[in-house]
Prior knowledge:
This protein is α+β, with helices and mostly antiparallel strands. The chain is 15% helix and 34% strand. It contains 4 helices and 20 strands. A hairpin with a 7-residue loop joins strand 15 (259-268) and strand 16. The radius of gyration is 40 Å and the shape is rod-shaped. The structure holds zinc ion (2 copies). One zinc ion binds at residues 32, 93, 145, 151, 153-154.
Amino acid sequence: xxxxxxxxxxxxxxxxxxxxxxxxxxxxxxxxxxxxxxxxxxxxxxxxxxxxxxxxxxxxxxxxxxxxxxxxxxxxxxxxxxxxxxxxxxxxxxxxxxxxxxxxxxxxxxxxxxxxxxxxxxxxxxxxxxxxxxxxxxxxxxxxxxxxxxxxxxxxxxxxxxxxxxxxxxxxxxxxxxxxxxxxxxxxxxxxxxxxxxxxxxxxxxxxxxxxxxxxxxxxxxxxxxxxxxxxxxxxxxxxxxxxxxxxxxxxxxxxxxxxxxxxxxxxxxxxxxxxxxxxxxxxxxxxxxxxxxxxxxxxxxxxxxxxxxxxxxxxxxxxxxxxxxxxxxxxxxx
Length: 335
Ligand SMILES: [Zn+2]
Ligand SMILES: [Zn+2]
């Protein structure tokens, strides 16, 4: 592919102040970047490339006081090569005493914004180097501005490419855009909130020295529909689930100072009552002076597939009638 030159007329260059110093040959070419921010929107809008090169010329002439843009050629992401001072003219961008040794080629990337040269720009820089060899007597050297001069130029990406010998990219000059993969629909596990209670204040009896289920006859929230609706039912969850569950139960009819236990258990799904497959840590509770036990128990755990979760209480009082008169269960569940 022939070089795609943008003439000075085409990019609206200002005329140089005075005449150039002439060169018949150089040892090669030095590659530069802008050293500032390059607006990434130039990738989609070549008019912005033109405006950027005009801005650089203005900075060099008005800011640095140079007679013209300092570069021999400038290359945009569209593989277009802007004529700066052109071949056989002394550039100004390499630093004092270093301009007659090498032509200066700008790649239109910076230290922020657009920092990575697209493949088309690398092709364009090679086009520019070959053009300077053919038209300006440039030698074989390809260097970065920082070679022999204290500067970050031409930036990490371009300099790495230069030190590899400035190879043409293996991709074509105008690769088809790679379609972006469809974003994967992510399944986010949002925990559900559940809460049950025992609303029947008359409660039910609890025999001594027997683990007894805590029943719930009311659902305030049962988002996973694991609790059986009809009547007072002890099942809380049907696995597999992760959960954090907090139980509050009230027992009456116990002597002050008596003690008892509370736990969560897992039984086999579909069995009532089922054998206990696994029991959680046992909590200990005691009865207050008014003969009421307010039992609190919290468990964090997992219920495997094929298992149901229940809460159970136990006491050892052998006198009177002990009743569960209130229960609340609140939980956060992961499906
Ligand atoms: Zn430079
Ligand atoms: Zn462009």
